Amino acid sequence: MSFVRAHSPEQREVRRNAILDTARAMLEEMPVSEVTLNGLSRRACMAKSNVLRYFESREAVLLELSAEALGEWVDALEADLAVGFDRSDPVSSRAVRVATVIADSLAARPVLCDLMSAQASVLEHNISTDTVLTYKRASLANIERLAGMVSTQLPELSGDDARKFTAMAALMATAAWTHCHTAPAVVAAYECDPALQFHKLEFDATLRESLELILAGLLSR
Description:
Strand content: under 5%
Distance between the termini: 63 Å
Radius of gyration: 20 Å
CATH topology of the largest domain: Tetracycline Repressor, domain 2
Order of helices and strands: HHHHHHHHHH
CATH superfamily of the largest domain: Tetracycline Repressor, domain 2
Shape: globular
CATH architecture of the largest domain: Orthogonal Bundle
């Protein structure tokens, strides 16, 4: 297929969306680390140079998808947290519930977790300041929304502590995802030596317990 440059804003948007759709489909099939600019351009039936007309880098494509996935998760989480919420329940029970709902919902979104875990080390490199500003502003809006949801569930937390919790939750999710999805050689080592099972972590359980501990600490202050 020969490439015809898009001239109108509408045509450019169609091309951008086609690239995003291609990358989105690739992330359903492979981890972030295996999505390359060469592979993306082949799947989108474009030359690399043409993909770069619409996105400054492979990282810029994935960062936009990360922002999109984060927003979709926060939208869904609002509904999940509302189910069965009872303000009269003990604060400890509500804290455990918040931690459980967040951990379970993230465990159900492996693509988002993989993108989040690659953010600082991969996705925030090879991009411009303008791209960073766009992503960080969108992320901040989602953090504020999530902090508001946590405050609704746990009014005992101050607004600042609710925001601290959301920031810590994101850090714990990225750390837990990385440590729970190890290289084949590490998995094999765990299977060879039962004494190493301590290091073998399950993502949802690890994240849930970590979030419970963070909330308990914030609530006790």
